[in-house]
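Record type: monomer structure entry
Structure origin: computed from sequence
Chain ID: A
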Amino acid sequence: MATKHLLEEFPPVSTAAWEAAIARDLKGADYEKKLIWHSDEALAVKPYYRAEDLAGLACLDAAPGEFPYRRGSRTNGDWRIREEIDAENAAEANRLARAAVAAGAEEISFSGRMVDSSAALETLLANLGEVPVHLEPAGEKLLRLLIQRLDEQPHAAGISTGCDALASVEFAAELIRSAPAGFVPFTIHGELFEEAGATAVEEIGFALAAGIDFLAAMQEGGVDSARAATAIEFRFAVRSDYFIEIAKLRAFRMVWARAIEAFGGSCQAARITARTSRWNKTIYDPHVNILRATTEAMAAVLGGADSVAVAPFDACYKQPDAVSGRLARNTQLLLKHEAWLGRVADAGGGSYYLEALTDFLADEAWKRMQGIEALGGYRETKAQGAIDQALAHSMVLRGQAVATGRRVLTGTNRYANPAEHALDRVDVALMSAVNRGARKYEELRLRAERHAAVGGRVPRVLLAEIGSAKMRSARSKFAANFFACAGFEIATQRFENASEIAAADTDLIMLCSSDPEYAAMVAELMPKLRTIACPPPVMVAGNPENAQELASAGIADFVHLRSNAVELLTKWQERLGIELSEYRLEARS
C-alpha cells in the first residue's frame, strides 16, 4: 500500500496568494518600506523566498568538493581552528603555540617579527611538525629562510605566510619556482578591504581582481597558472551580517574557480582563511564581543572557510590574557565538538535565500572585477586611486550608519550601560590600531570619564516626561539611550506642568512628549526659564513638523531617529563643559 506523503494534506500556495495575503495585512502600508531590507551591497532583501527564486542559478546540483565549489571545497564541513600568537621572541611564541595545540588549536598563525635568523625559525617551529603554521607578516628574508628550512626539513602539515602576493611579482615568480609543494608563500588580504570599509561585494571583487592580477603576472613570468594558484591563500574578515557573510565565502569560491578556469588551470578550490572582524568590536560592554565573534565564526564555518581565527574579546583595547585567549579558542571548540558544525558539508545549501544571495554576490563581484580589468587590472587601478576612493566612500556610508543608529553596536550606540567605565583599562595604542565603527562613540564616553577623573562634573540631562502617556515614555527611553552613549548623567522624571520643569536642577532639559503637545509646553516653559540667571538649554525628543517654530521659541536642538548622534553628542559635550582637549590618555607600555 502506498504511503501518503504528509505534505499532500496541504494544498500548494502560489506566490500570488502569498502576496495577496500580505497586502491585506499591510492595510495600505507601503510594501517596500515595511518589508524590503536594503543591504550595504544594494541588495533588496525580500520578506520571503521560494523555490522559484532558484530558477536559473548556477551549479545548484554540484556536490560539496566539486567545481565550482559553491557548496564547499571539502566533502564535510570540518575546518581548522587557527590560533594567532604574538610574542616577544621565538622561544616564547613556540611555548604558547604548543600550549594552544594541547588546548585544542589545530593551526598556528605566528607574528613573523620575531624571526630574523634560521636559528630563530628553528626554535619557532620546534615540535610543531604536525600542525599547519602561518607566519604574518613575511618579507623576502623570512621567505628565503623558510625555503632553506623546508628543503632541509619538510614541514609535513604545511606552512603558509602572509606575504603580499603583488608586492614584487618578479620575486614571487622566482620564489614559486623554488618553493616545495605544500608551501603557500602568498596571501591576498581581503580583510584589509573590509577594515577599510568594503561591502561584501567589494571585498570579493577586489580580492578576486588582485588574485587575477597575480595569476596574470605569474603567467607572464613563465609560471604555470595552476601552480601559481596553489601558492596563494585568501584571507577574509567575517562580520556579524550572518547570511551575507556565509554567502560571501561561497560566492568567492565560485568566482575564483571561474577565474582559474579562464586561465586554463585545473579545477581547484580557493584556499580560504577567515578571522572575526575587528571593525565591529567595542571597548564598552566588551563581553558582547564574544557573542559577535561566535556569530562570525559560525558564518565562516558555514561559508566553508578552511581555517578560522577568533580574536579574544578584549584584543581591541588591551593585550589579551590567558582567559580571553581561552574563551576565543573555546568558541570554536564548542562549535566543532558540541554544536557539531563540522559534521555536515554546506549546511545552508538549498536555502532559497542563501542560494539567491550567493548568486547575487558572485554576479556583482564579477562585475566589479570586470570594471577593474577595464581600467588596466588591480595594480593599475590601485595606483590610480580608484580602489581607495571606492573604499573611502563605503567607509563614509558605514560610519554614517553607526552614527545615526541604523547599524547597531550593542552597548555602544544603543543599549549602553551608563554605569560602566573603561578609562582605567584602555590601551589607547591598541584602541586606535585599527579602524573600528565604535571608536567615535568610545571617545565621547572616555572624554566624559576623563572630565570626571580630573575633577569636572559630568553634565546632567533631565528627561522631562509630560503629556501623552504613550509618547512620553517611548521618547524618554529613546533619549536616555541616546545620551547614555556619550557618558552623560541621566535623570528621568514625570512632570505635571512647566513650572515644575523650570524649577528642576539640571544642565540640560529634554522634553519628552507627543509632537502636537510641544508647542503649548514650550510657550509655557520658555518664559519661566528666562527668569532664571543661567537657564539650562531645552531640547525636544522627536522631529515635529513645527520644529522651526519651536526653534524660534528657544528650543536648542532635536533628538530623533535620523539624528547624527556622534555630531550632536559631540556638540553638546562641548557646550556643557566637556572640552575635546580633555580626552588625553597615555598609551600603556
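Annotation 1: The two ends are 79 Å apart (CA to CA).
Annotation 2: Residues 585-589 have pLDDT under 50 and may be disordered.
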